[in-house]
Amino acid sequence: MTRVARDERGAALVFAIAFMVVIGAISAATLSSITSGLHNRTTLDVVRNRQYAADAGVEQAIAAARGSVASWSATTNAAAPQNRLQTFLNSANCGGSHNYPKLNGVYIQVDCKPAPALHNGYFQFNGIFSAAVCTNSACNATESTAVVRAEINFDISGGTVTRTYVQSWSVNT
Amino acid sequence: MEATVRRQTRRSEEGETLLEVVMALIVIGLVVSAYFATFSTQSSGSTAQRNLVTADGLLRGYAEATKSAVRSDCPSSTTFTTTTTSLPAGFGVASSTNQCPQDASTPRQVDIAVGLPGATPPIVADCSPPPPPKQPRVVCLSIFVRKP
Fold it and tell me: Which of A15-19, A92-96, B95-99, B116-120 has the largest mean confidence?
């Protein structure tokens, strides 16, 4: 009788501990889920800031390229049609590379490459702008890491760019 | 002798059972309290996430609407009007400017701020550093707009 009673001692404590462990595990999982969700939110904010910083960099680079692009018509009109593209590729530029101040917490470098096209005997004065994220103000990003890649058509009349058209605009997350 | 043992055992069991019940009640009370606290935290976390997701959507939507307004309004006007859909209850949106860029070669920075529920008005669209935002419960985004 005494032995049996002694064996039952502490049973409630064991159950209580087991109960606490189970509930604790559930609570820990719940808190982990909340923390993970908030962390994912932060990641999405970072992606948004990066995309719009790159977007802003390309917009600034397009505006800055108007002067360089305006000279394309004057330097290429005299050449034979087959040579015009080569003339473009050899001599044309659209502002080169730009490093922009931090925007939305992100440094952006934008590169521009001429991409002329011949369409029905007429040139399309196009440039490809690629914006990549940098870790600091002086960076050397490559097009393969571009966040935004845009092909812009420049409408040139009278030696000046009168309007720009977005031909393609792709965003990588 | 046997009666003495039985009495001692019963007395011992009575005391331990009461103690165990009290301890169990305390433990269960603590665990249930912790569980409800967890649910409360989860609820507030979920609300915060929902608000931030809503703010993210509003920021993106307002940014795209601003760029579209600049493209359509600025060739013939000095100001642009951003058209947005109705805001969810408790949210507010502010923009730093409605002035068009001066010319096609000079883009203009536009700061957009979204105030979450509970933000102290007025919401100021100023995304200049240093982060974190100067106003609590306000999410900020900078964009550049240009004339086409």
Answer: B95-99
d(CA A146, CA A108): 10
Minimal Cα distance from A67: which residue of B?
B105
Q: Is B143 on the interface with A (CB under 8 A)?
A: yes
**pLDDT, tens digit (0-9, with 9 covering 90-100), for A148-168:** 999 999 988 877 889 999 999
Cα separation of B123 and B90, whole Å?
Answer: 12
Highest mean pLDDT among A2-16, A37-51, A147-161, B2-16: A147-161
Q: Which two tokens stand for residue B142?
A: 């900078």
ipTM of the complex, rounded to two decimals: 0.76
Q: How far apart are CA B76 and CA B88, in angstroms?
A: 32
Residues of chain A contacting residue B59, judged by C-beta atoms under 8 Å apart: 48
Q: Which of A144, A98, A152, A161 is nearest to A128 (CA)?
A: A152
This prediction's pTM: 0.77
Query: Which stretches of chain B score pLDDT less than 50?
Result: 1
Question: To which H or E segment does residue B132 belong?
Answer: none
Q: Number of Cβ pairs closer than 8 Å across A and B?
A: 112
Residues in chain B: 148
A52 to chain B, minimum CA–CA distance in Å?
A: 6
Q: Do A30 and B106 count as a contact with CB atoms less than 8 A apart? A: no
CA distance B9 to chain A (A): 6
Nearest one of A148, A150, A147, A143 to A168, comparing CA atoms: A150
Task: Give how far B80 is from chain A: nearest CA, Å.
Answer: 17
State the DSSP H helix or E strand holding residue A167, giving kind and residue range, or none if neither.
Answer: strand A160-171
Closest Cβ opposite residue B20 in set A12, A26, A33: A12
